[in-house]
Amino acid sequence: MNNMPSMTKNLLIVNFLAFVATWVLQTRGIDLASLFGLHFFLASDFHIYQFFTYMFLHGGFAHIFFNMFALWMFGSVIERVWGPKKFLFYYIVCGIGAGIIQELVQYADYTIQGISAYQYVNAGGVQMTTGAYINLWTTIGASGAVYGILLAFGMIFPNERLFIIPFPFPIKAKWLIVGYIGIELFSAMSGPGDGVAHMAHLGGMLFGYLLIRYWQKHPDSSQNFGRYQGQEFFDNLRHRYEQHRQHPKMKAEHTNPRTESDEEYNARKHKNQEEIDAILDKIRKSGYDSLTKEEKQKLFDQSRES
Predict the structure, then answer these.
(1) How far apart are CA 278 and CA 264, in angstroms?
(2) Alpha carbon separation from 244 to 230, 234, 238 (Å, rounded)
(3) What global pTM score does this model have?
(4) pLDDT of residue 162
């Protein structure tokens, strides 16, 4: 847990706590899924905040386990690439987008079935009012947001090879994502009945794809989030070092006379360059907070020298 990126860790904790709270309160007659799950927008129990709260609730251990496993496995990588703020924004957008698609699918069913024309509905052998029936159309789970994370991984690392059970051979990430899309489409078209919001999964992917494409076409808006804190500072620092490496003696013209030889000076600068490169690589992989106090001080000192 200590090596996990902060936002991925926090999302795991929040989802787990919500799952425990759901189980504890249910024994006392309080149904969090009914209060904070995403209801059909024409139902009396619908509230706009449910587009956000529904993605932190789960219906069972298997449901939360597989969602959180995928979030840990792929979300940790994406957060290290994008940074916590951009990662969280993407996660929430995918989750809300999945909810919007699910609402549209439910509205299509509501219209096609002509439910509004009836006062009572027979559901599973039980007769109930139409209002009570559509209140049962409730969606919970982080699957939409998680599927958006899967898509992001496939788009950023399309040729990364993954071992997926039960296949005994590695599969490229891009083909894994295509396979997931195909399975979800087939499951959605096979008809309702399995209790899984397949179109919501695809909705999370759709909104994730649109957001990534927007960031690719408008890089300035993406940079506002930052891949990690101080990204521009470290990019500029690396750029200055690369310039200095190409012209190692330019710096000496503006400093006090040296007592060391050119060979010693270049050797010291080369060693310093390797140390800075290692620190920057560490930031890219694990974030700025993973640096030791000495490493942070070295970066600070170098920025003043540059």
Answers:
(1) 21
(2) 21, 15, 10
(3) 0.72
(4) 82
pLDDT of residue 230: 44
Which of 82, 60, 98 is CA-nearest to residue 8?
Answer: 82
The 8-class DSSP code of residue 49 comes to T
Residue 251 Ramachandran class (φ > 0 left, ψ -120 to 50 alpha, else beta): alpha
Which segments of the chain are extended strands (E)? Answer: 38-39, 120-123, 126-129, 138-139, 161-162, 171-172
d(CA 184, CA 190): 10
Say what the pLDDT of residue 273 is: 76
Q: Does residue 276 or residue 93 have the better pLDDT?
A: 93
Q: Give residue-wise pLDDT tens across range 276-304.
A: 777 766 766 665 556 677 776 676 666 44
Can you tell me whether residue 138 is helix, strand or coil?
strand
Residues in contact with 247: Cβ distance below 8 Å, sequence separation at least 6, in sequence order:
none
Identify residue 7 by its one-letter amino acid code.
M
Could you write out the DSSP letters of every residue in 252-297? GGGSPPPSS-HHHHHHHHHHHHHHHHHHHHHHHHH-GGGS-HHHHH
Q: What is the mean pLDDT of the chain?
A: 82
Closest CA to 80 of 287, 289, 278, 220: 287
111's enclosing H/E stretch is helix 84-112
φ, ψ of residue 139 to 5 degrees: the values are: -115, 135
Contact (Cβ atoms closer than 8 angstroms) between residue 202 and residue 183: no
3 state SS of 41: coil
Contact predicate 71/12, CB 8 Å: yes
- The residue whose two tokens read 């926090």 is 10
Residues in the chain, total? 306
Residues 209, 18: Cα–Cα separation, whole Å: 28
Banded pLDDT at 192 (limits 50, 70, 90): low
What pLDDT shows up at residue 252?
40
